Structure formats: C-alpha cells, structure tokens
Amino acid sequence: MTNTTPSPNPEELRYFIALALAPKIGPGxxxxxxxxxxxxxxxxxxxxxxVLKTPKVGTKLLELRNQEQELLRKADELISSxxxxxYRIFTSLDSDFPxxxxxxxxxxxxxxxxxxxxxxxxxxxxxxxxxxxxxxxKSATRKIIEDLAIYQPAIISGLAYGIDIEAHRAALAVxxxxxxxMGSPINQIYPAVHRKTAESILETGLVMSEYAPGSxxxxxxxxxxxxxxxxxxxxxxxxxxxxxxxxxxxAEIAYSYDKDVxxxxxxxxxxxxxxxxxxxxxxxxxxxTGPGDIAEALFWVKPGEKEVKKPALDLSxxxxxxxxxxxxLMDKNESEIDQICYGTEIPLGPLASxxxxxxxxxxxKSLPGKKYKLLGY
Length: 377
Hints:
Elements: H1 10-21, H2 27-37, H3 40-43, H4 48-52, H5 59-62, H6 68-85, E1 88-91, H7 99-102, E2 110-115, E3 124-128, H8 135-148, E4 154-157, H9 163-173, E5 178-181, H10 195-204, E6 206-209, H11 221-232, E7 235-238, H12 246-256, E8 260-263, H13 274-281, E9 286-287, H14 291-298, H15 320-332, E10 334-336, H16 337-344, H17 348-360, E11 364-367, E12 371-374
Parallel strand pairs: 3-4, 3-7, 4-5, 5-6, 7-8, 8-9
Antiparallel strand pairs: 1-2, 2-6, 10-12, 11-12
Helix pairs in contact: 1-6, 8-9, 11-12
C-alpha cells in the first residue's frame, strides 16, 4: 500500500521498531518508556540513573540497552523484509496510525498491514461470533451488514471460521470496506482456506496483524488480537456465541472500552445463542433488533437526512450537587469517582449515592475502574 503521509525519521523508526521488538516490552511498558524518555532512541542514550526512574522499568529491562546493536539489526531486517513483501509497518509515530487505537492503553504501538484501505474510517462496526456458526447466525450476519450498508461503515472482524468470515464476505458483497485483524503473523493467512477472501479484502480494505512476518503463531495470539477488533470498532455486534469463547472476550473488552455492544438474541435451546443471551441478561450488551439500534446509539444519519443533534440537558430542576456533578462529567467526558470527589468537593459518601441515583435515571453509566460517564456526551 502506498503511504502518502509523512513518515517518521528513518533513524527514529529504526529505534522505535528495535525497542518494540525487545523481549518483555509490552505496550504498557513501551508507552511508559516513550513518555519518560521522549523517544525510543533517547532510551538507549539516557544515563542509567534516569532510566531507572522510568515507571515500570526495572534493572532487568535496563539490560536491554546492552542489546542495542542486535535489536537495531533485527529492526533493519524487518524493515527490509516488509518492503520486499509489500507489508506496511504502522507505528504510533505515523500520522495515519489509527486514532481509535491510540486512545487505548493496551493497544499495540506497532503492527503490520497490507491492502489499499485506511484505518481512520468515519464509521466502523465490529462483528464477531462463534466459529461454529449456524444457518441462522450466517443469515443474521448477512442481513445486519446489508441493512447497515446505507451508513457506509467499515466492517471489522477476525477472518476466523463462522461469523467472522461471513461478515467479511457480506461486507465485500455490498461494497463496504472491511478489515481483517489476524492472530497469525501478517505473512500467514489463517485459516488458509480463507486466502481468497483475504485477497479480495486487499482491494478496498486491509489485512492486519501485530505479529511480524515469520514470527511464531501461538494460541495466545488470538485472544490478544480481540482487543484490536474492539478498539477499531465504534460499536460491536455479537451474532452468535457459546457460553465461552473469543467472541465473548471481544465483547467484554469492548464493554471495558465503553463501546456500545449489541448482541443478537437467539433460541434459548441453542448453545450458540447462550453467550449472546447472557450478555443481554448481564446488561453488558443491548439487544440488536435492526440498524436503527446502531444509528440511534451512535447518532448516525443516512445520506440526505438531517444530522441528529445530541439533546441539550435541562438542569433547571436539578439540585446544586447534581448540577455540579453533571457539569463536571460534561467537561471531563468520563472520570474516576475519586477525581469527581476532588473536583466537585462533594464528600465521597453522598457522592456515591448521587452517582447511583443518576445511573438509575439512565443519565450516567458506571465503567470498570470506578469510572463514570455522562451518556450521550
């Protein structure tokens, strides 16, 4: 894929990739290093004492700096290999790195892709489900995508058997761009029987992976890639899911990211509807009944329709504490209860009761980590 956006400085890119390839450097530690050192290159040149002050970096990781030349050699080999094979290396240094990934703390700082599409789409819908899809599940998937086509979202899924591959094929059939997030290395289409679909995706969409060409494929790769599907999706629809499985992992992650999650209800006697029904029961997903559910949740409009504006909040009948909390959340978007307590100067006990009352009204939503968010804002 041709890159029309400015690329990072070649030397800066080498060091960025070298550090990202280092063992035991996950996204969290990598981001902590960059935040403290300013750049990957700086990390290798800072005095030892300053490096030890970097959050999450201990003496063992300090030893990585002794591997500087070896890591740079591997980075150079990877850059050369990807150029020859036509794989694009996306790093968070790039101006076209997907903004949806940047906001998540655990998102990859580097990944690989091939195709002609963009990852900064206007709208996106993730669709996931069981690998053992039933006729009902496949039909529902096609219907969902056909109905959503008027809104022109990108369709995000994982190229797996069952619902995933049905989603990709249905998107291609109605002319929607689709992104396949693989758990295998970028050079290894898995499962191999989906190679033709993957090749079709390249024409208008992307096939991507956080695993470098030639790297080892492990079972843990697949649950890990689910966070990327959740991150890239404005909303996630679970079509069919058993009581346990990757689709439910993706739904849980999307819910933790405060994404709108929908589940297609199914037959109570079908094991592949049990996961969806449980998501709805536990209020971690809304019931999907049609495209209007998505449009209403995300304020989408069809071409030619007047844009739906978020309703203005009427605070005239609110008491002073409620006004303070609502206005605080309007300004912050979302916040932990301790921060709300500090910012509003309302004691923690009364504040907890007030937040619970506002949540019962449907005005705010509690999030993982004792966070709260004003709904619709």
